[in-house]
Amino acid sequence: MNDTLTPTMLYLDGVTVTFDGFRALNNLSFTIAPGEMRAIIGPNGAGKTTMMDVVTGKTRPDDGEVVFDGTYDLTHLDETQIAELGIGRKFQKPTVFDSHTVYDNLELALKADHRVRETLWWKESASERDRIGTILNVIRLTAMQARLAGSLSHGQKQWLEIGMLLAQDPKLLLVDEPVAGMTDVETHQTAELLKEINREHTIVVVEHDMTFVRELGVKVLCLHEGSVLAEGTIDQVSQNERVVEVYLGR
Amino acid sequence: MTTHILIRSLDRSAAIFLIVLAAAAIVVPILNMAVPETSALHVPTYLVALFGKYVCYAILALSIDLIWGYCGILSLGHGAFFALGGYAMGMYLMRQIGTRGVYANPILPDFMVFLNWKELPVFWYGFQHFPYAAIMVLAVPGALAFVFGWFAFRSRVTGVYLSIITQALTYALMLGFFRNDFGFGGNNGLTDFKDILGFNVQAESTRNALFALSCVALMLGFLVCRAIVTSKLGKVLIAIRDAESRTRFLGYRVESYKLFVFTLSACMAGVAGALYVPQVGIINPGEFAPGNSIEAVIWVAVGGRGTLVGAALGAILVNYAKTYFTSGILAPYWLFMLGGLFIGVTLLLPRGIVGTLHHWTALRRARLSAAAEDGVAAPPPEPMPAE
Fold this sequence. Notes:
Chain A is of the alpha/beta class. Chain A has helices at 48-55, 79-85, 102-109, 116-120, 126-138, 154-168, 184-198, 210-216, 234-239, 241-248; strands at residues 10-19, 22-32, 37-41, 63-68, 72-73, 87-90, 172-176, 202-206, 219-224, 227-232.
């Protein structure tokens, strides 16, 4: 990738989303650089999930610009087109295909031609099998690959979903609350996992768990009432008066 | 490429199903025609026709299972596609009557003469040719499903809303077909057929041939469905059923997938209707009645949705029960039984008959493999939790 041509991976400028008069996003602007990992924090209703909905095409903003990879205006594209451009998303609630095996979940997520006819005649190649094997290793689910995804534990489902993102091989990963409901050990492992993934992918991670955010050790963006309240390292942000007031508490 | 899809799609129950069907297609006509009537093995002709009808219902059930069981599209109007296929075949059969009709008009079917029509309506053109009619059997239901699906799936109409509009679709068609000026025989529909491809539709041999053909059509339909559900496309369909928006975020164009199976399923339903009409000898707007479509959904639920074999089995079982119970003293209670059956299956057997069998085998296999993996040092197996 030529960094001089694409100085930003994701660029939001003045994005506003209103639901029945409620401003979920209020003139939100920020940029994410290629290869960066960014943590987004903020109280409930700050607009974190709405921001992800806007970037992935689920919600159309009333106003503002969303540019991906320096060229694509995302406000005019739908979910499928945006996914094809290379933006992957992990939902807040782990969403995997329960009645498919772990392996099949990854196979479905694998980057491929997703049109109907091509999918009907699709046959897995050896390199694709290897790639799924590698991902299974990364997300530590190799031993479970033949199990139905519905039978996995909560934490394992979260990882499987992250694995599906990896299989998609997106340029940008949006990860919504990856450690919600995880044990401390799992949380730690997830932080390691994300750092590993970050070596090749740009990541935006929304999370409430401050220990986890601290462990990631990346730049933090705090949202409040639909716009940016503070931005900086975790220490800078957590010492910010306003952040303490509205989010962290004294 | 085709061979690997065929091999992959055949598991044990699929193979048994196909063998039984093939055997039925060969053995039943022999038992009917070659075995003397006095023999205990003789199959009376009325049973051949009856089971031929059931097999057509099984094809309809299969088409519903493909979209409902695998893709989560609950169509409560699939009877419309069945009836349209039936009408296309009925139009061919009407044109074959020729001068043998009551009014002996070489071109116009009786009901048109009766209505004082002077010319054959344009949409009846070509139906005297079997190949054209055969194409229409697929094309008319397919085109309607495509247009309907294109609008519905693009607007992301799902769940109960989609079910309701499919129901409205078949109801609207029923009202249309009831009208005399619609051009399809009004409430009498099309009947009084004489021959199909030159053979007398009433003849024993024709009935046997139609029965065998229906079995072959069910086998083919089954193979097509199996090939689809065992391909990656089939996995995508299940993914759509389980988590539609997840599938979308993975980059699959969900509406195209739905449109594909919905259209295919409508074509299959059309074939079922086309085979049904010469065997029952009539097609009328009653076939569009919403109740018919709902009944077909019940067959699938009873047999086990998402199993294909179960759908076909459910159609045959429920219809056999219907024939049995509506011909005795229990006749007035059949609808209560049908309703009770649906409630009972939903409450007690949510996977349906075949689905429950599959589930049991899967549980046993899982227990066996777990035991094998754990080996000697394994702790005593835990009791299976109650479902």
